[in-house]
Amino acid sequence: MDFSAIIPALPGLADGLWMTLKLMALGVLGGVVLGTLLALLRLSPNRLLASFAATYVNYFRSIPLLLVITWFYFAVPFILRWITGEDTPVGAFASCLVAFVMFEAAYFCEIVRAGIQAIPRGQMGAASALGMSYAQSMRLIILPQAFRKMTPLLLQQSIILFQDTSLVYTVGLMDFLNAARSRGDIIGQAHEFLIFAGLVYFTLSFAASQLVKHLQKRLAV
Amino acid sequence: MNYNWDWGIFFKSTGIGSEIYLDWFVTGLGWTIAIALAGWVIALLLGTLLGVLRTVPNRWLAGLASAYVEIFRNVPLLVQLFLWYFLVPDLLPEPLEIWFKQDLAPATSAYLSVVLCLGLFTAARVCEQVRTGIQALPSGQIAAGYAMGFRLPQIYREVLLPQALRIVIPPLTSEFLNIFKNSSVASLIGLMELLAQTKQTAEFSANLFEAFTLATLIYFTLNMGLMLLMRAVEKQVAVPGLIAVGGK
Amino acid sequence: MISIQNVNKWYGDFQVLSDCSTEVKKGEVVVVCGPSGSGKSTLIKCVNALEPFQQGDILVDATSIADKKTDLPKLRSRVGMVFQHFELFPHLSITENLCIAQVKVLGRSKAEAREKGLALLERVGLAAHAHKHPGQLSGGQQQRVAIARALAMDPVVMLFDEPTSALDPEMVNEVLDVMVQLANEGMTMMCVTHEMGFARKVADRVIFMDAGKIVEDCPKEAFFGDLSARSERAQQFLAKILQH
């Protein structure tokens, strides 16, 4: 084993890591927004909307992420063509991001829903009593409290997403893992690069999860 | 990019032998189930053992189990799979390495790698659930076990585990479902499980929407079926007067 | 039967037991009482080594607890213990609860264990519930099963750690009745309890503890006879308990 070849490859690996982090950040952002929306639908008194959201969540939670990534990679160009009527080139990045957002939204939805349900019912009553509309109560009173409580869970899910971004390997997107694999293959040191990739993932993920644990303890007091 | 819908595609010939596309899905589902079940056996046995170790009054053993969990939880599944499939065989003693790389059929060596990988990966998660279950039991149960003259292993076997494993059936169910979903990574080392067969169908037939719809349906049904199965198990092992089960 | 010799125990800097010494002779019934936090439960748990202690020794039937060579599980199998929260094993049926340690610890045959268990269940008046699970019984019934479970091991001494304090008031007597019966049969018993009626009826001696120390250790007649001869703390405690 000779790890010295990794040093000249670092800039390329950094590009890969940047791609991974970009996918994670945008995936979390989109996932939380869509997930919150779904959670509000699931909790809405409108049965049709609630069951739509429930079906969405059950659907995405029962299929593998890898299937979603693969499918979207094939399907997004078709769908866009049907919508716009012309060939729109879509990169792997865009299709992967859509896949992550839609898939993770199902998981974020459940976290947000549990967070909202953990807020005592009296809070909603108090907000209404002050003359707030349903939307105002949610936006100003319920959601801020709920988000504070579920921050550790949201962060934990984000760490899972950070690891799951490596699945874009299947569509050839140059994320961190793929960058390491391809560089290692080219110079015939696949093992060293793979071990290095594993160590980097472990370090980042472990550090982040320790931070979340720390935060959880502070919030619990 | 004109799309020709054809839901009858699954009954058409693949052009390879006398196979129809549906045969591919059946084969793929077979692999998926074979991976998940074998991996689950490893995960359940090793995970329970690790969960026990995390709770024993011995810092070294508890620390060892804890380190295992952190390592296997913080490295992406796909990286772990590549390590098992590409790296570990090279580290084996030569006769084993030759056996693994040359004597085994490619599908078999990929299968062994993915089963081991998923089993060890999922064991870390099972460990955490089992640990939570054990810690949820009243501490008086351990005292009562000791007071009757049990030794620690007996307390775990006769008192703690039978109760803890019952409590953690719901979270274990979701890990059980996860291992089926996670088995799709096998497609990335060339094992023709369900997702790989779906991709192949999409590429061969150009009917990708139909192919992926069927795959989704199969995963969805599998998920539902396993969930019902686990609920039945939960009901079967429920203790009268202890835990209310099954939404009655 | 039990000889507690200068036992000291600390949780970190906090001393929970200081220099406790007493004896329980064969066939004797000793009641241990005292305010909560006085260390009485800790002391009784030291007797079968459920709680470790740092100094002193306890001899049970001439076997030392502090001796590292002592086989503690074997010793514990000869000491019956009844807990405040019963601690029946909820996943096992009543019969299984009665049999499990007989089979796994004493190595009795299943049939022998079952016969013994059912006889004891009969004795505590619960034979009809043999097939049920603990969760299906009332608290008082569960505690009677717990006593039977301890007796099934043919213990040389029985320890009771507040056996009635987790019970609804109407169930206290059914448990005390079993304990009185046991005392009358000559069982050696050490009971942590606030049930002074029980103490008056069957105790040979009463021990009063406060702040980790054994403050009073005297025959029942003396303990309840002349209150003015008791320590101030004991008088305060008894005044609170005996008022109702």
Order of helices and strands of chain B: HHHHHHHHHH
Radius of gyration of chain B: 22 Å
Please mark out the parts of chain A with pLDDT under 50 across 5 or more consecutive residues, or reply none.
Answer: none
**Total helical elements of chain A:** 8
Please give the CATH architecture of chain B.
Orthogonal Bundle
What structural class is derived from the secondary structure elements of chain A?
mainly alpha
| Total of domains of chain B | 1
Strand content of chain B: under 5%
**Distance N to C terminus of chain B:** 53 Å
Looking at how many chains there are and whether they match, the oligomeric state comes to heterotrimer
Rg measurement of chain A, Å = 21 Å
Query: How is the main sheet of chain B built?
Result: none
CATH class of chain B: Mainly Alpha
**Number of strand elements of chain B:** 0
Number of strands of chain A: 0
Kindly summarize this structure in a few lines.
By secondary structure, chain A is mainly alpha-helical. Chain A has a domain at 22-174: MetI-like (MetI-like fold, Orthogonal Bundle). Helices cover 82% and strands 0% of the residues of chain A.
What do these coordinates show?
Chain B: This is L-glutamate ABC transporter membrane protein /L-aspartate ABC transporter membrane protein. Chain B: It is found in: Cell inner membrane; Cell membrane. Chain B: Its main location: membrane. Chain B: The chain crosses the membrane at residues 29-53, 60-87, 107-124, 208-230. The complex is a heterotrimer of chains A (221), B (248) and C (244). Chain A is mainly alpha-helical and 221 residues long. Chain A has helices at residues 6-43, 47-61, 65-84, 92-117, 121-129, 134-164, 176-186, 190-220. In chain A, helix 1 (6-43) runs antiparallel to helix 2, helix 4 packs across helix 6 (134-164) and helix 5 packs antiparallel against helix 6. The model of chain A has no long low-confidence stretch (mean pLDDT 92). Helices cover 75% and strands 0% of the residues of chain B. Chain B contains 10 helices and no strands. In chain B, helix 1 (21-55) crosses helix 8 and helix 5 packs antiparallel against helix 8. Chain C has a domain at 81-154. Chain C has helices at 40-47, 72-76, 94-104, 110-123, 139-151, 169-184, 196-202, 220-225, 232-242, and strands at 2-11, 14-24, 29-33, 55-60, 63-64, 79-82, 157-161, 189-192, 205-210, 213-219. Chain C has a 6-stranded mixed β-sheet, with helices on both faces. Chain C has a 4-stranded antiparallel β-sheet with strand order 2-1-4-5, with helices on one face. The longest helix of chain C has 16 residues, at 169-184. The radius of gyration of chain C is 18 Å and the shape is globular. Classes of the chains: A mainly alpha (221), B mainly alpha (248), C alpha/beta (244). Chains A and B meet through helix 3 and helix 8 of A and helix 2, helix 3, helix 8, helix 9 and helix 10 of B.
